[in-house]
Structure formats: structure tokens, C-alpha cells
Amino acid sequence: MEIIKAVLFGIVEGITEWLPVSSTGHMILLDEFVKLKGSADFVNVFLVVIQLGAIFAVVLQFWNQLFPFQFKDKNRPVIEMEKMILWGKILLACIPAAVIGILFDDVFEAMFYHAVPVAIALIVFGIAFIVIERWNKGKRPRMKTVEDLTISAVLIIGVFQLIAAIFPGTSRSGATIVGALLIGVSRKAASEFTFFLAVPVMLGASLLKVLQYGFAFSGSELLVLAVGMITAFLVSIVVIRFLMDYIKKHDFQAFGWYRIVLGIIVLLCSMAGVIQV
């Protein structure tokens, strides 16, 4: 049963991590009905570390865009400066969330990791998606590719990622995409940069959780973690491809409406006592 539960969590993680619908909101609902066995500390580690599977999917999908070393000469690699600049932008955008997250992660989790704040964040950013997409309708994006992103644009996107780090339910991908669209970035570039940002953010978050836990995993816990990560990896590959195809013909308004509906469901479940978080 624990393996089946790990598969379910991996599926939900793989879908909701990349679609701008909040993995936190979905995990809260799933955790109410599918309880993993083990200590609360292990469950917290599991919910973060399975994100590594999703990260490996990004690295695989965008390897050619992210890997800066080309082995054209067998004796020495050639460094592609455009990709090094891209990594500089990625790390710059991650600084606000990384600093604040390391210092105040436990504080924010205690304050806002509850059903009502999560539901409010779901609804607010759902409305933001709808409003911004309608405001942008007919406008040509000023930055069409990830390479077009300016330093100021990267910093603004980093601030929006910080908002997601503070308020669970905002959705990291949702917040960064909203921020990018707001300043004139194309949907394709906004989505790709969001995927790229996830690599250092989730690697850092997973490492931090594992260090806090102390590597004290039993054999069964390691098995559950592995199953969750592999499932998240496989599902993420499909979801990333779906999203990149979807945005070629559609905007993000559908995800905005979905977030609003989910937020209302979370609020109603909280009021009915179904959710105790």
C-alpha cells in the first residue's frame, strides 16, 4: 500500500509542479485522503525530495539548452558563453527566494502552511492569470526567448518566485509565469525560464530537507522515496511536453479558473472540517 501511495504522490507532483496550479494545494488535499505511514518528519522530507524526480525530467528535456560544455575537441571541452550567461540569470533570479527561504522557511511554514492561506493564494493568483492574460491580449511580447531576458526582468521574476516561497498555494511556476507575463515575456520564454529556475531551487530545497533529517532513512523509506521520485520523473516528462505544446495555441486563463475552483474547494473542505491542516 505504501508503494501505491508513493505512486499517487509522484503522479500529483509530476503534474502540479509544472502546471501553474500549485502542487502544495493538491498535496494538502491528497494528504488528507492518502496518508503515508512514517513519522511527520519523514513525510515532510518525502514531499520535498520527490521533486528531484521532476527536476531530472527538466534536465533531460532541456539538456541542450542548459548544458554549457560541448566536447567538440576530444582533448578539451568548449564552453558556450550564451549558456553560461543563462545560468547566471537563473542563479540571479534564485537569490531572493534562496536567502529568505534558508532564513525563514520554518517560520513561513508554521504561519502559512494551512488550508485557508493556501486557498486564498490559489484564488488570488488564479484571478491574476485571468486579468493579466486579458490585459496582454493582442500585445506583442517584448522578450520572446529566454536569451532576451534582461537583468531587471530576471530580478522581477525572482521577486515573484520569492512570493511563492513565502505563501504556499501561490505555486512557484504560477508566480514566476505571472511575473514574467506582466513585464512582457512571451508564454514560451516564461514557461521555459520557470522550468530552469526549478533546477537549483528544488535541488537546494531537497538537500536542505535531507540534511535536516540526517540521512537516517530505513530501507522501506528509501524504497518509498525512490518510487515517488521515479513516478514524478516519468509524469513530468509528459506534462512538460504537454504544457509547451499547449501554450502554442492557448493562454493560461484555463489554469486561472482551475485555481479559483480548487481554492474554493479547499476553503469549503476546511470549513466542513474535512481538512485539518
From TrEMBL:
The chain crosses the membrane at residues 42-63, 84-104, 110-132, 153-170, 190-210, 222-244, 256-275. GO terms for cellular component: plasma membrane. It is found in: Cell membrane. Keywords: Antibiotic resistance, Cell membrane, Cell shape, Cell wall biogenesis/degradation, Hydrolase, Membrane, Peptidoglycan synthesis, Transmembrane, Transmembrane helix. The keyword Transferase does not apply. Its EC number is 3.6.1.27. One of its GO terms (biological process) is peptidoglycan biosynthetic process. GO terms for molecular function: undecaprenyl-diphosphatase activity. It is an enzyme of class 3 (hydrolase). It comes from the Bacteria. It is a multi-pass membrane protein. The keyword Transmembrane applies. It catalyses: di-trans,octa-cis-undecaprenyl diphosphate + H2O = di-trans,octa-cis-undecaprenyl phosphate + phosphate + H(+). NCBIfam families: PRK00281.1-2, PRK00281.1-4, PRK00281.1-5, undec_PP_bacA. Bacitracin is thought to be involved in the inhibition of peptidoglycan synthesis by sequestering undecaprenyl diphosphate, thereby reducing the pool of lipid carrier available. Belongs to the UppP family. Catalyzes the dephosphorylation of undecaprenyl diphosphate (UPP). Confers resistance to bacitracin. This is Undecaprenyl-diphosphatase. It comes from Sellimonas catena. The gene is uppP1.
